[in-house]
Amino acid sequence: MLPVSAEGKDPMSEEMVGQYEKELQKQERQDVLKAYMRLCQKHRLHIISDEVYAMSIYKTASNASAVPFTSALAIDTTNLIDPNLVHILYGMSKDFSSNGLRSGVLLSQHNAPLLSQHNAPLLSSLKSIALFSWPVSTTENYWTTLLNDRPFLNYYFAENSTRLAASYARMTSWFTAHGIKWVEGSNAGFFLWADFRGVLGPDIGVVDEEEEEMVEAVAVNEMPAQGQVYKTSKRAKERDEWFFGKLMEAKVFIATGDAFFAEEHGWYPVTFSVPESILKVWLERLGRVLEEVKKESGGAR
Description:
- By secondary structure, this protein is mainly alpha-helical.
- Helix content is 44%, strand content 9%.
- The chain has a 3-stranded mixed sheet with strand order 1-2-3. The chain has a 3-stranded antiparallel sheet with strand order 4-5-6, covered by helices on one side.
């Protein structure tokens, strides 16, 4: 798969998928899944539904009308797609806050026990790597115990949703008060996309004509299989790295947008799913960094 800039309005790019769902928010998410299934059936493609955030859903004032989660398992595939082409990924890392246990599953119910002649290549591929990633028995027992404890799960998922919503509200309120924009409307997961270009300067994503050829060459050389040309410049990259250094000096860690293939410098994925006491300290430190950055740069440039 090749990444395509959302500005190109590619309907299969991640951003355009989000826009498509937003347009259909008064309908069921099932319509979107069904559309993907028809497309995959037409081209005989496997559809893999990554549902790792399935139970990490929350409601806030900005996403009250967001489309609720629907698993691909809940879709009747009759006259939509060959069920052998439908697979679901799930794991402990997100919903159970247990990424250190490195445990996940592939659900392919219509291929059980994946010995079907239809998916012999799939079985062979899975076997080739499964031997090196089997979870230990203690992890298996831990997860099995959790999944069989229905009263606990009912409490845990409800409480998790409540806390996620509260943390999201605290962080976005702080961002609003400090003039930081973010991508609104999220209703699942643990982080949001924050736009710090207003702090780093209005030219953070501008490509000078003399730099354009250099940027394209770097992009192609760094990602030969993708060939993506990002909207960036040497100046913007240096400015982003300088800001990241300031954050690290203040012991404020935010993964850079580069690490998540952001299309422009100045965007950062910011995690908000931490205890209130930790989030408070983190925001206080971030506030001091922003003030320092503004003073050193003479305000937004």
